[in-house]
Amino acid sequence: MSLIDYINKESIMIDVQETEKERLLSKMVERLDGCGLLVSKDDAEHAIIAREQLMSTGVGNGIAIPHAKTDAVKSIVLSVATIKNGINYKSVDKKKVFAVFMLLAPKNSASENLKVLTAIAKILRDNPHFLEKLINAEKPDEIMELIAKEEMKI
Fold first, then answer.
1. Is the model's pLDDT at 117 over the cut of 80?
2. Could you give the angle at which helices 21-34 and 41-54 cross, rounded to 10 degrees?
3. Do residues 83 and 89 make contact, with C-beta atoms less than 8 angstroms apart?
4. Across the strands, what pairs with 63?
5. Contacts within 8 Å (CB) and 24+ apart, 137-141
6. How far apart are CA 71 and CA 105, in angstroms?
7. What confidence category does residue 126 fall into, taking pLDDT thresholds of 50, 70 and 90?
8. In this structure, are strands 97-105 and 77-87 parallel, antiparallel, or unpaired?
9. CB contact at 8 A, 13 and 27
10. pLDDT range class, residue 1, cuts 50, 70, 90
11. Which of 27, 43, 46, 145 is the S-S candidate for 72 at Cβ 3.0 to 4.6 Å?
């Protein structure tokens, strides 16, 4: 399993110009839907927003990992968005978020879902250089390449 196996390159959003967390999440869900990756856009959006209301998925160090288990997807999907100016996300460290990894997984995929979340955490953990490269990427291909290279290190 590799993270890039779950990412549709067309779902990657570069330098999103958004200032509200809920609107950013909504845009990411819309993009996934536009890529044909969702069974139900409304259910996916509801699942992500409901999960976010439980507790912020802004994990600190400029990163957010919104995630939800939902029947709105048939298989695990992962999307990435970068925000060069950052967004107020109500992160645990109260700092702006610059990169968002959105993960949607079917309800019956708990084990695989956990593996993907763990892999995301491993490539991001204490790695400011990776985040900087991610934020400065100008094309989805660059983001895919950066993630693939970082995964090979772990």
1. yes
2. 150
3. no
4. 60, 99
5. 137/14, 137/82, 138/14, 139/14, 140/9, 140/10, 140/12, 140/14, 141/9
6. 8
7. low
8. antiparallel
9. yes
10. confident
11. 43
Q: Which tokens belong to 57? A: 């998925």
Q: Specify which residues 103 forms β-bridges with.
A: 67, 78
- Reference 150, options 51, 3, 10, 22; nearest CA is 3
> How many CB atoms are located within 10 Å of the residue 138 CB?
10
| pLDDT tens digits for range 3-49 | 999 999 999 999 999 989 999 999 999 999 999 999 999 999 999 99
Give the pLDDT score at 142: 97
Residue type, 66: P
Q: How many residues does the chain have?
A: 154
Q: What are the CA-CA distances from residue 43 to residues 37, 49, 68 (Å)? A: 13, 10, 11
**If DSSP codes are grouped into helix, strand and coil, which group holds residue 40?**
coil
Buried b (16+ CB within 10 A) or exposed e, 76-115: bbbbbbbbeeebebebeeeeebbbbbbbbbbeeeeeebee
